[in-house]
Amino acid sequence: MSEGTLIPSKRPLDEEIASIKAHLQEMGEWSIEMLTDGMEALAQGDADLARKVVAKDDRLDAFDVDIEHEVIRVLVTRQPAARDARTLGACLKVGTYLDRVGRLGLDIAKYVRQSPSKDQFPPFSLLQIMQDQSIAMLRVSLDAFDRGDIEKARAVYEADDAVDELNRQVIKECIVALERDPLQPPQIVAYVLVSRHLERVADNACKIAEKTIYMETGHRRREFLTPDNKVSL
Amino acid sequence: MSSVVEFPDARVKIRIQEVSAYYRTQRAIEKISMQIPSGTVTAIIGPSGCGKSTLIRCLNRMHEVSPGARVEGRVLLDGEDIYAGDPVDVRRRVGMVFQKANPFPTMTIYQNVAAGLRLNGERHHDVLDKAVIRSLKQAALWDEVKEKVHLPGAQLSGGQQQRLCIARALAVEPEVLLMDEPCSALDPIATAKIETLIASLKEQYTVVIVTHNMQQAARVAEYTSFLYLGHLIEFGKTAEMFETPKEPLTEQYLTGRFG
After folding, report:
1. Residues of B with CB under 8 A from a CB of A
2. pTM score above 0.90
3. Distance from A50 to chain B by nearest Cα, in Å?
4. CA distance A139 to chain B (A)
5. Long-range interactions of A199-202: CB distance < 8 A, separation 24+
6. Which residues from chain B sit within 8 angstroms of residue A75, using beta carbons?
7. 3-class secondary structure for A52-83?
8. Considering only CA atoms, which of B170, B194, B25 is closest in space to residue B96?
9. Which terminus of chain B has fewer Cβ atoms in its 10 Å neighbourhood, N or C?
């Protein structure tokens, strides 16, 4: 009876998956840059920078299309199963999440015309904290995805509550500001939306963490996420 | 370590209980226990030499035909031990299609399909005619051969010959159809036809297919068992096994880390 032939060396599929993951990391940096620049344009009221963010959308689209193309090609040629199939499925989804993050940055940049400068609006510091936290979550989730690190993925979920709380705080402060100055509603609404966008960035980081856990364990969100948004594995 | 799903008694067509099979002193499979659910397609996969063909041949007593071969354990067909009765009766109830299409070379298409019935003593032409037409239709071959059923079966293409063999197996109205790598010698178009046929057969038959082609198992089978070195490593729903195998060995095999 044959014992089967062990194939210890790296498979071509390993290299193809590594290439797609590297491409996703690159896309992640691009999306984060769009988000950071969008927030900077908003903070400085810099319409030129806002236009540059809008111009970055084409490259974001190209990342999305290229990654989808790469994944489909590998699916067709390698017909992967088990962890390989889960990884490639996760890559497709992570590409979509990163596309959304970049677009959120783009939407934030478009609020430049409607917003007063940050000096006129105290809650802007809260938005900057949200920005830092959501980008940190995104970076950790991308690292977790790249390494298949479940503990890092778990940490991303644990950080999400703080961003949700900041979002609630911003909304409260905006309501107070509206009561104080009822003539500024468009600007205030813009801040509420920006806060919501940053909260969505953190949600997308959680989605990437979710796909990391799926890729590593095969468990879906409903199987590992408790009602209070904690990872139970 | 193994992970094996079980079914309610009413769903079980074949119950394999601690089956070991030997070629003289060499053990090919060891204490395999699993249940084949009725009206489904079950695939058996694993690397070369893992015992998958041996296992399938234990299900209709073909294994014991090999010189020096013997079987331990029990195989129950609808609760009856197939090793307690007449092997010819077992093989009528459990048909088999082999890797290489093997139509009887001197017989016509019609004679090939009718051979089993004639062997069982059926002589009425109208009964034979109906059985041949029904079987050729079930095997998705009728439309291609209805004008030439009296030509030699060996004149058909490879894919058609394999469907002829399936028609021949179906003519005696078995309850179970065993298929041992039925597409390994066929091109992709012929393979697709056989796979479509397998999907339609499960409405009436319980099908067990041995395949070295994992994607074929994924395409045609609702349940899959993975064998390694004569042991059953995992048996479960195909979609679940191919997405999230429970056993590390299954994972390694499905991802091509050995084979």
Report:
1. 26, 28, 47-51, 214-215, 218, 228-230, 242-245, 250-251, 253-259
2. no
3. 43
4. 27
5. A199/A130, A199/A134, A199/A163, A199/A164, A199/A166, A199/A167, A200/A100, A200/A104, A201/A35, A201/A101, A201/A104, A201/A134, A201/A135, A201/A137, A201/A138, A202/A130, A202/A133, A202/A134, A202/A137, A202/A138, A202/A159, A202/A160, A202/A163, A202/A164
6. none
7. HHHHCHHHHHHHHHHHHHHHHHHHHHHCCCHH
8. B170
9. N
Residue from A145, A153, A150, A29 nearest A94 by CA: A145
Q: CA B172, CA B132: separation in Å to the nearest integer? A: 10
- Residue A151 domain-assigned? yes
Instruction: Look up the CATH number of the domain holding residue A64.
Output: 1.20.58.220
SS3 B61: coil
Chain A interface with B: residues with Cβ < 8 Å: 1-7, 11, 13, 79-86, 217-218
Distance CA A71, CA A92 (A): 7
pLDDT of residue A119: 56
- The residue type of A35 is L
The answer to the question of residue A5 being in a domain is no
- Domains of chain B by residue range: 3-102+176-254
d(CA B251, CA A43): 50
Count of the separate structural domains present in chain A = 1
What length is written for chain B? 259
- Does the residue A104 lie in any domain? yes
Q: Which residue, among B76, B57, B81, has the nearest Cα to B16 in the 3D structure?
A: B76
Q: Which is it for the CA torsion A174, A175, A176, A182, positive or negative? A: positive
Which domain, by its residues, includes A142? 12-224
- Identity of the amino acid at B129: D
Residue A116 has pLDDT above 70, yes or no: no
- For A120-169, the pLDDT digits (tens) are 565 788 999 999 999 999 999 999 999 999 999 999 999 999 999 999 99
Name the CATH superfamily for B3-102+176-254.
P-loop containing nucleotide triphosphate hydrolases (3.40.50.300)
| Residue A109 included in any domain | yes
8 A C-beta contact, residue A109 and residue A53: yes
B254 with A11: Cβ contact below 8 A: no
B242, B251, B258 member nearest A4 (Cβ): B258
B243/A218 Cβ within 8 A? yes
Torsion, Cα of A84, A89, A91, A96 (10° steps): 180
Amino acid A176: pLDDT? 87
